[in-house]
């Protein structure tokens, strides 16, 4: 799997470099909500590994991530937005629209001055549909996306100087999952990004950080299997951006490429490699689709239906207007 996956990345590189960073990767609004009826699970867990380059999965020891790829559907050529930075990228991941629409182009915690994002998030739409939501994140800047009126429970650092490690985040998120069983759980691990900025992407410290994130993913999967059962939830694992040297944020493919992995209820099994063209906005649409919540008609994101075996197992839940 690893050699084939890495070959896919090389092949896509030539396409992207030849065609630029636009074309199929740009925002294309979906045409009509009814075409995207889903509902394959009552529980979605979305994990974002900050700064995880797709090629790191095959280069370093990542038994959990590689196991999910072997047992589910994946792409190592999904693309994030420009600027390829943590807060703008995660905002697109959780709102289904690009920075030109959601307006978050800064990359630090400034919620007292700038407030919450002004477009609907997956948390708001799931909450409006009567579903429970929770988030556990490693950086304070996520507070711009976590309105207490829309997220039933969340934990995030308070200031920009504080970053939480995966060991803390995973313990807290598993404990909450065990007692509250949220319909939508978002978990963010920051180690690869921390190591990349400190010692460089693909460095030895970065490989250690990727291993820490992989181990945290394994713990989430083990806990979810115990709490929900192996077929009782759908897991998606992705990233906000890649990186080069000790930075990121450009339109260069090495900064924009991200992994995208789906596993669990409704997902195509047996090492299904997805076609290129997945964008980070599609993650938001896929989360709502999997839960059976209506996708806003003006979203750029489209559900990655090709990652799933079935079109629907239960009726769609209409989302209230924001």
Short description:
The chain has 322 residues and is an alpha/beta fold. It is built from 12 helices and 8 strands.
**Helix-strand pattern, N to C?**
HEHHEHHHHEEHEHHEHEEH
Spatial extent as radius of gyration = 18 Å
What share of the residues does DSSP label as strand, in percent?
Answer: 5-15%
**Tally of DSSP β-strands:** 8
What does this 3D model show about the protein?
The chain has an 8-stranded mixed β-sheet, with helices on both faces. α4 (86-95) runs parallel beside α12, α8 runs parallel beside α10 and α9 runs antiparallel to α10. Residues 1-36 and 315-322 have low confidence and may be disordered. It contains 12 helices and 8 strands. The chain is 38% helix and 13% strand. The chain has 322 residues and is of the alpha/beta class. The longest helix has 25 residues, at 204-228.
